[in-house]
Amino acid sequence: MHIHLFGNLVSDSNTQYGLTTANVRQYLDNLRGLSRVIRMWPHQDHANTIASKWELCQSLDLIAQERTNTARPRTRLLVDGERIVNAMVLKRTHSDAGEHVIVPSDTTRRNWDYLHSQLDVPGSRWIVQSFVEPLARLGEWRVFLVGGEMVYTVHTLKNRDRNTWSWDIVHTYYTLDELR
Length: 180
Description:
alpha+beta
């Protein structure tokens, strides 16, 4: 028997999967117990790593540096208790669909009390990243490739009303000249 699991993202408001800060550790313990008797793919520890923005940033930095020779926003782990620089973007490694991305203009959540209160996903940490104004203004496009073929593209934009991010599958595209 094989069970396919994806990375788990948890918040107090996550009712879609029934996971909350109160039961996530029990859920993970139960998964570990189940994995002793049933083959699970991917392994839960691997799924949690895949869901981490820090792991993704490291991979993208490597690709940008060694394969495409392109610029990337500077990204590093935030050291607990260090001074939070207002010009940087804060991201939780497991961001729960952009709910834990804090841009420089968001001054209410840029403090250690708030950041500590949002580490409910086991293994999650905070990272800091250079602020890229066009990204905040234009959003980002994520292209999903399977076997070298484009499957679909998602456009993510800042939702100013909720102070979070929203996304939609893209059906039309800008040319690079239009983006410049």
